[in-house]
Every structure is written in structure tokens, then in C-alpha cells.
Amino acid sequence: MNDMARLQKQRLALYGWMLVAPALALMSLFAFYPAIATLWHSLFTRGTTRRPSVFAGFDNYGDLFADPTFWTVAWNNIIYAGITIPVSIIFALIMALWANAHIPARSFVRSAYFTPTILPMIAAANLWLFFYTPDLGVIDQITGFFGASPTNWLGQPETALASVIMVTIWKEAGFFMIFYLAALQTIPPDLREAARIEGAGRWTYTRRVLLPLLMPTTIFVFVNAMINSVKLIDHLFILTKGGPNNASKLILYWIWEMAFSYFDSPHAAAMTILVLLTLGLVAVIQFRLVEKRTHYR
Amino acid sequence: MSAQSPFIQIKAVSRVFNGCNGVHDLSIDIPRGSFVVLLGPSGCGKSTTLRLIAGLETADQGTIAIDGKDVTNMPPSRRGLSMVFQSYALFPHLSVAENIIFGLKVRKTGKEEIRTRLDDALSVTGLAGYEDRKPAELSGGQRQRVALARAIVAGHPLCLMDEPLSNLDAKLRHSVRRDIRELQQRLGITVVYVTHDQTEAMSMADIVILMKDGRIEQAGNPADLYLKPATSFAAGFVGSPPMALIPASALPGDVIPAGLDMTKLTFGIRPEDLVLTTSADQSAWSIAATVTGSEFLGAETFVSVAIPGTEGATARLPGQVHIAPGTKVSLSWAGAAAHWFDGEDGHRLEPAMPRQTAQEPNTSIETDTAIPSL
Amino acid sequence: MRNIVTSAAFAAGLMATAASPAFAATELTMYYPIAVGGPLTNVIDGMIEGFEAEHPDVKVNAIYAGNYDDTRLRAVSALKSGDPAQLSVMFSIDVYDLIEQDLIVPFDDVVKTAEDKEWLKGFYPALMANGEVDGKTWGIPFQRSTIVMYYNKDMFREAGLDPEHAPATWEELVSAGKALAKDGKWGLMVPSTGYPYWMFQCFAIQNGKELMSKDGTETYFDDPAVVEALEFWRGLATDEKIMPEGTIEWGTLRQAFVQGQTAMMWHSTGNLSAVKREAKFDFGVAMLPKHKKPGSPTGGGNFYLFKNSSDEQKAASLALIKYMTAPERAAEWSIATGYVGVTPEAYETDALKSYAAEFPQAVVARDQLEVAIPEFSTYDTARVREGLNNAIQAALTGEKSPKEALEGAQAEATRLLRAFH
Amino acid sequence: MNTAFASHPAKRTLPDFDKILDTIGAWALAIVWISPLLFATWAALQPSGTALGLDFSSPLTIENFVYVWNAVPWAGYFANTVVLVTLILAGQLVLCTLAGFAFARFEFRGRDTIFILVLLQLFILPEVLIVENYAIVSKLGLFDTALGIGLPYMASAFGIFLLRQAFKSVPVELEEAARIEGCSWMGVLWKVYVPAAKPVYLAYALVSIATHWNNFLWPLIVTNSPDTRPLTVGLSLFGAPETGVDISVISAATIMTVAPLLIAFLIFQRQFIQAFLRAGIR
């Protein structure tokens, strides 16, 4: 009897492993193994014909911290994340509320919000490049119509990063909207009515009921947005190439430059490891938080 | 405020949704302090009526006044009422206490007062000690009481309840029914209560408003509804088992009261008014029927019978009765127990002179020996 | 597909080690970037077909690999994972890094016959300069450009300037620019994103100073002449007001020019065909104006030979490169793109002759080769270049003074290049 | 609000200001959001060199589309893209279903650790591992194949996470009922869980298709031939920033690339959104 139960349990565990195995194998092959290889590479110097690669310990990491570009790029990325994440989340939420409200031509509105999501980033960046053209670009033509003088959006350090941020938000908000839209549907209409009866206005209801209830979605979206704030750099290649003077350079772009432009894969590897560590840490914390916050469901 | 002027006055209100499930030209007066139940099958408009009173819907036509104040176009929060939802609509992320005082906080009631009122509500509903729990950590009955507490905490004179017991099990429902009634009387508030369960309506209401297809079928106290159903629908809806409704064409001609047109006439008889006899002695006053089954409930037995050309009937017999299915019986009743309805529009007909029955039938089935078990 | 390729290559390798005398079918894999907008893969494919017809024993997989950066990445990925690739078109200025990474072999090792050696001498020397390191030739010019000045003749006429005489000196440039900059239009635009160092080389050389030593181990960013050159560039916007302030976007500049937003632009000759197609007005192309001396850097892509290929493959690669740089192909490529024909013979072909006759703008870049210098390239070139780019942008956007910015870049470059002395 | 709000008849006594404001806001934002695409459409219909003039009187032309169409074997690229996207999606659905099922319904030692590993994979950016991944694909002999492009994306942490959540929300009673009827584990998965998670599958499919339809760099790197390359490679031919971009042509190429997806989305918009809504992804 007891043996049967144990056998049964072992069999289930075996099934579990078998089910996970294929995905785990592929992940190991294309994520974990390369990540570990990267870690390994980061411990060696760059090998050239003159100097073969030698073990360097954590020297590459030390070099990074000593490089002022590292701090510029890290700071840029913090600003980039610090703006794109909350702003796209807020836009996504507003969009979801509107796309969920009963307004005329709702399908059009939903499609309009969502469409940027399905454009290739490269194509989107090419289009935006022209919007940002000083004088001639659509943005300057519109602001010019209201009497503003032309702005060299991508060409000055004050606006370059902001311009890049705009494109990211435009691209992402519609995607996140979908998740909010889905979550909104799971909130019973009763709650809104109960709140109305209790005298809660729209704002109170949103703040005291809706937002807390959407918290799990927000965390999910937040994690995604955070990953994207590191990941999404395609448009940099087209829009600013990190310029002017590093004003819009982001971490992954810099890694990319180091690896494929500077032929300096050890430092790129070290930087990659730093990013992975940071993200991994945040991921674990977030995951804990998600599990905790979803308890009441 | 004069005693006569109704607390809630609904005048000629209509609300239509794409042609279905609305209410049409509805007028209701609800006296202060009464317990009013809106009763009816699903889709009859009872919930819409409640939502119109609440202000969750706005009337297309007509006016609604509460406490003498025209509230037709007022938002719910300014109507001075509270509501208990079928699903309870508790905020899952808030604790019991936070749920209860949600409205007080919205209205920026003072901290002190919130505390006092919360304690009151908690003790009245027996929830003391559960303040910090989340709704998910409560049983169904407890959640129901949280919803109730939230409804009474503000001290509004009007409380609307939308099928508040339908998610509880039968035993609990019975006790909560009594609690709610008691609470209503203690607080002296007016309750408008929606249900499709006629037992609930009959046991709780001062006034039952029976609705069908967005219109009022009958309004009155529970006894009126039971004893003098205004329509065949009301007759069939109220009472359990329901009143048997038999086309007059299936009856022996002698029992039809004079002056009624038997071609479009429905005869109604409550189960407890039916008399069963096993003998083949069919009289001019009785109908032939066949027993199809019986349910023993302890104090009484329901015997269902098939009558050719009808949907059948149920008789309520005291004590335990054994009748084998297939047994031929004849049915009879006291003349005064008969209800008559128009066969077409269903309204109640009062025959000027009920035809005299030959005699009060002998209660020929009284004990389980009367009919030999076959 | 790939399996066939691999096994064929494998077979070829086997046969080679077996010292088979037979000239077995040779497989070549070549990467190339498309650096000018438009579907030029067709032109390349046509050339490859022509080559294969002439050399039936060689099979070429010519693979479009994106832009220059993508192509470099592609080549590096392939070589580091041991995939066979024998040659590639890549940035001419990547040469030091490719040598450092031990990825390429010099042509001197492959060029055996006297005829081939003669062929090496047939290119314009200015175009060969970038590919020559340590006395060896590592890159053969293919899609090469210089920077020229495009100008809008209609706007010149409106401003009362001679449309047949483009500004030839800095002074003329400024005065013409002032006449042209009005009504929200600009006199001149010099792009400063993408390749700021390249444009800056123009100003520096015109002011009499090159930015780096011939052996790629020294830079002269803080030389007074260089600082002055950057001050002049910045002054075009801040003092002379003939150019907008801040950086000017490389990618959209052509559109700005063809829509008449600026009367003059400095840009790669690689844009010529596109400008010709898009401009709805009469435009001229001129050599860049001189100051102390005339001059422009070259730019663009060279052929490189990768290591780890068999002798047969190297020989076949050489044959392919010879074919693709032969006068007819060079002329065809030049007409299709606007790039410079890489040999003087190219300009003797009928095709290019008649093209130049009807479209004289096409030979300006060639003429400028007389005074052209190699494109900026050093060891650790991308990093050194990035420092320079940032300095230029910092100066143009007013974040730093030209002197301060260039001194910083020089210090950084000195540090990076110390290892290579 | 519920459906009642959608259909109120004419005789409302008060105008609903909230709703009017909502409508104005929603529309304004929608127009702002869609305008880049509208502009691209307009630019694609302009002769090169005039698009940025925003001169609405100028005649429209399809020359850019003709030029773009003739320049690249779009039909082949389109077919490759469809094959690629289908393959990736199929792989993802199978792998993520199995893994999601295991994480949702099986108890085994190390499960939570592995799940954290899976989540970590979300953060391992394939973009920086390109050289390593290239080597692996090459070693597997999958270079220049659709499978080679797709394989690194098939074990999607995102998919596993979504499906795990979806499976977890399926009532256990359903599973138990099926098992009493004699379903094997696979039968339970196939007959109970998969149908129950259908909306999640649809939603995930939409995200996956949109992502991989637009992936560029990786396919470019691991392919050699026009027989395997996707649409975005065709697009890249027109956006070469080395010499500058022609807005009209790049717009036309962009529209050509996304048109199939866009049309599919517009046609199935309702179903897609509904799928998401029913997915209840949180």
C-alpha cells in the first residue's frame, strides 16, 4: 500500500521531468550554456595575434567600472527604463480602460493602439527617423504650425534619449494594453457597481479598487517592460547609434559595440554577465512578489 | 412626511435593452420601513427594477422618487441607499474591515465615527474577530454577512438586496433569512429584496411584488398572493408544490361555475385542497387520474397524478401514504378551494355563485390503510 | 542545402590534402553588405553568374549580409564557429582589427604570378592606401567612395550665385552659404551622425593635417590644425549660421537635400545614383572646397581573404576578386551605385565613358582621388574612432569646446594605442 | 459596466459627459498612435524626394511599390516567413504545453528551482549570445534551415509561464472527471487542459507570430540563401543607413512587409482581442 503510493509518486515525478525535459534541453543549449560560456570568456583577456588570451580573473570587470562610458551608459539605461516602464504602463492602462469602455468605433481604437506592436522595430525606427528630421520632419512641421522653432530631436544630447524613449513607448504600450484588457475582463462588474453605490467616483474606484486588482498584471507587465528596457535596442542602430556623444547609448548597444565593433568580446562578456546578474536578481525578487500578491485569487 | 406618502415611488418607469429584459411602464409605491420582495422568474425585470432604484440604470421614461426626492437622474451615491449584491461584490484585495468601511472612507467620515460604526456593524453581523481577513479566507456565509455589514454600516434608510442568499446552502439560507428580517426590523430600514425563490419571498416579505416580462403581475402581502392569486401565472409561481392548473375542458361539466365559459377557462387547485379516493366511484364532481409517483417528506406526502389532457397535478396528503404508481384514483375538492382563471389572459375570475358541490367529500384517504398497498 | 555545401567543401579539402592534381570544383562563400539603399543584390548576383560562367569549376555563394556592421558580425560569427567562408566585402577601415583577430591573410601570400602582381598595381593608390599595413596588401577596393559636395543649382541661381561654380575654398563656402541660407533653408549641411570622424577628416585634411599616422598607431586629434578644423565646422553653425546647430542626421540628410531644405550637402559619392533618381531639380557635384590644401578621405568596402581556406579556394577567391574589380564590372558597379570605379581602366570603358558624358557629376569623385587620403583607421580602430566621434559630437552640440573635446579623445586614443607601438 | 450601457436608447435625459470625454480621449490617442503608419502609407504613395513636403495636393503614385516589388523576391520571402513563423509557433506550443503542464500539475523534486531557471531565461538576451548560438546551430547542422532559425526560440519561457498559469486555473475536478473516464495523462492534457486554455493559446500565438514575423538579425545571421530568408531581410535592403534612406521606398517596403500580418490582424482583430480577453492573462 505504502509502496504503491511511493511508486505512484515516483512515477509522477518521472512524468514531470519527462515533460519538462525537451524545453529544458533547448533552454540549456541556447541560453544557459551560452550564458555560462559568456561568463567563462569574461575571465580572459582579449586574444590577438600579438597577445594570446590569458586568464585575467575579474580584471575585465574592473576595467568596466573604471570606464566612464560604463557609468554614462548605465545611467542612460536607468533613465530609459525609469521613463519607458512607467509611462508605457500608464499608457497601456489608459488604453485598456478606453478600449474596454463602450465607445463608438471601439474596434478601430483597439487596432490603432495595437498596430505598432506588429511593426518590425527596424521599420518603425526608419519611419521615426523621418519624423524627427529637423524642419522637414512631421513632428517639426506640426510644432512649427504652432509657432515652435525647429528642434534637432536626435541631434542634441538633451532630446536624443527622449526621442528614443518615445519610439519605445509607442511600440510597447499597445502590447501591454492587451494584458490589461484581459485582466479588466476578469474583474466582475459588480465591484464597480458596489463602489458606485458606496459613493466612489471614477477616480476613487480606479485608485482604490481597479489598480490594486490589476496589481498582478502590473507586475507581469512590469517585468516584461523591464526586460524590454534592456533588450530593445534595434531602433538605436537606426535612430542615433547611441549618439550624440553617448547621450542615447544603452547597455545592450554598448555590449554589441564592444563585441562586434571593437572586437572586444571579453569586456562585452563581462558586461553581459553584469546585466544578467542584475536582471536575474530582479527577476527572483519579482517572482517572489508575484506569488505573494496573487494569493488572494 | 405624512404616513401615506410612499417612501419609494416609481412612476411609469420604462427601461428597455434592445427589446429584452427591460421593464415597461412600471409603477410601484413602497412604504417606509417595509420589507418588499421583487419576485419573479429570471428575465422578468426584477433586477432591472432594483438597479433602477439603485441608480445603476437610468430610466428611459418615468420618474423615481425616494423619500420624496426625485432621484431619477441622480447617481447612486446621492440616493442614500446601500446594496447587497448576489455575488456580494466584496473587494478581494481589501480586508473585511476595509470592505465594510469602504463607503465611509469615500465619504470622508471621521476616523472616530468610522471606528464606532464598524464595531457596530461587526457585532450586529457577528463578524467581530474577522476584521483582518481577506474575503477569500471566509466561508460563503461569512462573506454574505460582510456584504450585509457593508450595507448597513452607513446607516442608510434604504437597503437593496439582489438575490443575496442564492450562493448559500439551503440550511444557511434559512437562518440568514431570519437574520436579515430581524435586522431589518431592528434597524427600521426599508428593504427592497430581489429573489426568484418564492419561499424566500413568502417567508420574509411584508409586500411581494410578483413580476413577469417587465410588468407587475401581482403585488400584495404574501397571504393575498397565496390565497387569491391574481393570475394563473401568480398561482403557478407561488406555492410549492405549485397549484395544479387544469384546462376546464378536462373537468366534468358539473364543476364549472355558472356564467363561466368552459372553452377558455383554467381551473386551479392547491395540492392541499385536493382529495384522493381510490374507489372507482367516479362522481360528477371528480376527475379520474393515475398516480405517477409519491414523495414522502415526513409530515406529509406529495402524490403526483397524471390527468389525461393536462399537465397533471400534485396532492399534499398528511403523514405517510403508500400508493403504488399506476393506481387509478379520483380527485375531488371543496368548491371554495377552486380557483378560476381566464384561459387566455390568465386573469382571475370570480364566479358570482360557485356551483354547489353535492356534498363535502369524505376524507376517504386519511391513513395508510385506506389504500391497500399493491 | 548547407550539407551539400559542407560536403563539397569537405571533399575539396580531402582532395587537396591528398595532393590531387585535378582542379576539383571549388566552393566559395562570400559575404557582402549593401551600403546604399536599394536592391543591388541583383547586380551582385549578375556578376557572380558571369564569373561562374567563366569559371565553371568554381561555385560561389554570394551572401547578402546586411549593412557593414551586420556583415562584420556575420563574418566573425561564421569564422569563430569554424564555418567556411573564404572572402568578404567589409569596411576598409576594419583592416587592423581583422589582422589583430587573425582572420585575414594578405594578398601578397596569394598573388603569385607577375600578372597578378601587376593587377595589384592597377588600382588607384588612394583606394589601396587603407588596405596596406606593414608593407602588405590586405584589402582590395570594391565599393569605395570619397566625400563630395552636392549642390542645388536652382537654389544657387535664385541666390544669384553661379550654378556652374561651386565654392572651391572655405571662404567661398561660407559666403555662398550665407547667400543661400534664408527662408528657413540652410546653406550647407555636413552630416555628423553615423560617420562623424569621416566628415571631420575632410576639415582636418583641408586644414593641412591628417588625423592618424600611416601605421595606424598614432593619432593627432589635439594638433592645433585639427582643433582649428573642428572650430571651423562648429562655427559654420554657431558663427556663420549657414548650417543648423547640433548634429545632422546622416540617414535623412539626402532626403533633406532632395527636398530643397539645404542648398549644399557633403555626402558620400555612394549617394549619387539615389540623388540622381530622387532630385527633382538641377544639381551639381563638386570636389570639396580647399583651405590650406584640398582633400577628402576615401571610404567604403574592400575585399578581404579569410584564413583557413585551401590554396585552391584562395586562388579561386583571387580569380573572383579580379573578375569583380575588372574594368567592365567596376564601371557597372560605379554606374549602379555612384561608387568610384576602382581602377583608371574602369573610366576607359565605353559604359562609364558614355555615362560620364551625359552625367559629368559621376567623375567628380574620381578626380578627387588625386587628393584623397585614407579613411581614418588605426589599431583598435572602433574604440579610437568612437572616442573621436564622441568628441566631434560633443563639440558640435556645444557640450564641450572643440579643444577640450579633442584633447580628451587624444588622451583616450593614446592610451588605447600604447599597446601597439 | 455591463452591456446595458452599450445600448441605451435615445431618451436619456442627461448627456453622459464622462462618456463623451472618454470617446474624445480614446479617439485622439488612437489617431496619434496610428498616425506614423498612416504617414508611412501616405509617404509610400508619394514620388521619392517629395514625401516629407506633406503637400496633400500632390498626385499619388504606386511607383515605389512597383520598384520595391521588383527588387526583391517577395513571394519567396513571404513563403519563408510563413514557414518559419509556423514552425516556431508549432515548436513553442508543443514544448511550452508539456513544460507548462508539468509545472502546473506535477510534483517533482527540483520543480521550483527549474521554474526559476525558466524565468531566468526570460532575462538571458539572445541578442548578445548570437556568436555562441551561431556556433551551436552550426554544430547541429541546422545552419541555413528554418529549424535553425527557429530552434533557439522554441523553449519560450514566456509561453511556459503563460500556459502554467492557464493550466493552474483549470479546475482540478475537470481533470479528475477525465481520469475517472480512463484518460491517460496525455489524454487529460489533450482533452481537458488544452481545450480549456484555448484562448491563452490564441493570445500567445498572436504575440509569437508578431515577434518572429519581425525578427531580423538572427535570421540574417544564420541563413545564406534566399530559400530560407524571411521578409525582414528583404526590408533591410531598402533601409541602408550608410548612405541615407528614401522615405517613400522604405515606407513602401515596410508596408509590403507588414501588410500580410496587418491585414490578418484587421480581419481577425475581433477574434484576437477576444482571445486575449478570454485568456484572462494576469
UniProtKB/TrEMBL annotation, chain A:
Segments forming domain ABC transmembrane type-1: 74-286
PROSITE patterns documented for this protein: ABC_TM1
Gene3D superfamilies: MetI-like (1.10.3720.10)
Gene Ontology annotations for the cellular component aspect, listed alphabetically: plasma membrane
Source species, domain of life: Bacteria
GO biological process, one term: transmembrane transport
Membrane topology value: Multi-pass membrane protein
Record keywords: Cell membrane, Membrane, Transmembrane, Transmembrane helix, Transport
Chief location bin: membrane
CDD domains (UniProt xref): TM_PBP2
Transmembrane regions listed in the UniProt entry: 12-36, 78-99, 111-131, 160-184, 205-227, 268-290
Compartment annotation: Cell membrane
Family: Belongs to the binding-protein-dependent transport system permease family.
Record protein name field: ABC transporter permease
Organism from which the protein derives: Thalassospira profundimaris
Lineage: Bacteria, Pseudomonadati, Pseudomonadota, Alphaproteobacteria, Rhodospirillales
Automatic annotation (TrEMBL), chain C:
Region forming the signal peptide: 1-24
The keyword Signal is annotated on this UniProt entry: yes
GO MF: maltose binding
Gene3D superfamilies on file: Periplasmic binding protein-like II
Record keywords: Signal, Transport
Family per similarity comment: Belongs to the bacterial solute-binding protein 1 family.
GO (cellular component) term, any one: ATP-binding cassette (ABC) transporter complex, substrate-binding subunit-containing
GO biological process: maltodextrin transmembrane transport; maltose transport
Organism, scientific name: Thalassospira profundimaris
One protein family per Pfam: SBP_bac_8
Domain of life: Bacteria
Name of the protein this chain belongs to: ABC transporter substrate-binding protein
PANTHER family: MALTOSE-BINDING PERIPLASMIC PROTEIN, MALTOSE_MALTODEXTRIN-BINDING PERIPLASMIC PROTEIN
